[in-house]
Design a protein that fits this description.
12 strands; 24% strand; five-stranded antiparallel β-sheet; alpha+beta
Length: 245
């Protein structure tokens, strides 16, 4: 999270998965409004069983869109950024995922559009000051490797981009949640620079850390205490052409 050249904060939460449904909300831009609003919306969705009767993703996205617009109405616009975006990820049915991009700009107002989601791993949206730089790094350095167009390739590219410091406003540990073919969204802890994080929060030592799945930069499942790949986990090494080994 950044405030132009005034400062940066790398430990704020930016993704909000449902505990009950296969839905995830995330944002890029106005940190105060978006973080408050998405936290409220996902709590409402889970607590009031809001999606029990609404199964069509377009209708779900309409509900979320209307809630956001309603809350933004009385928001003091002089404190809002000139533009920001919210991404809504969901599942239409098994093997059929979809995503929506909700945008606001001072010049054009509100808009909502469905993003193109295929049936294989791909980059469906990139945004913010570091979006184009990340996409360029993936295309030029990672895409043609052994895992370049797999989920772990896109995630590794994000780690790699953050550590280049190309964009001063892109920093801190990556945040990760998943939607699978069935069930609710799943939170994951990430290991970054030999530390544990959940949604940007640095996690201290504890007895039950492995109640959550932890992953490293290539999505290897890791032991939260040892910060290393689990003994029985599938190895996902960085390709030699990228690691320099």
């Amino acid at each position: 999270m950044s405030w132009a050249k005034l400062g940066y904060w790398d430990l704020g939460r930016k993704i909000f998965p449902s505990e009950k449904y296969g839905d995830i909300l995330g944002f890029c831009g106005d940190a105060l409004f978006c973080s408050q609003q998405l936290s409220q919306i996902i709590t409402y969705i889970d607590s009031c069983s809001s999606f029990e009767e609404i199964t069509e993703p377009n209708e779900r996205s309409d509900l979320i869109f209307e809630l956001i617009q309603s809350s933004f109405g009385p928001y003091p616009k002089r404190f809002a950024l000139k533009s920001f975006s919210i991404v809504y990820l969901t599942r239409r049915k098994k093997y059929d995922f979809c995503a929506f991009n909700i945008k606001w700009s001072l010049a054009k107002g509100w808009s909502k559009s469905e993003l193109a989601v295929g049936h294989s791993s791909s980059l469906i949206v990139w945004d913010g000051t570091g979006g184009k730089g990340y996409k360029s790094l993936h295309e030029n350095e990672v895409q043609h490797s052994d895992f370049g167009t797999n989920s772990r390739g896109y995630f590794y590219a994000l780690h790699r981009f953050i550590k280049t410091n190309q964009d001063p406003a892109t920093g801190g540990p990556p945040q990760l949640a998943c939607i699978y073919n069935v069930g609710s969204a799943v939170k994951l802890g990430t290991i970054f620079d030999e530390e544990r994080y959940i949604y940007g929060l640095k996690i201290p030592n504890g007895a039950h850390l492995n109640n959550v799945r932890w992953v490293n930069e290539t999505l290897e499942s890791c032991d939260a205490n040892q910060l290393k790949r689990l003994h029985n986990a599938q190895p996902q090494p960085v390709p030699r052409m990228l690691s320099g080994k």
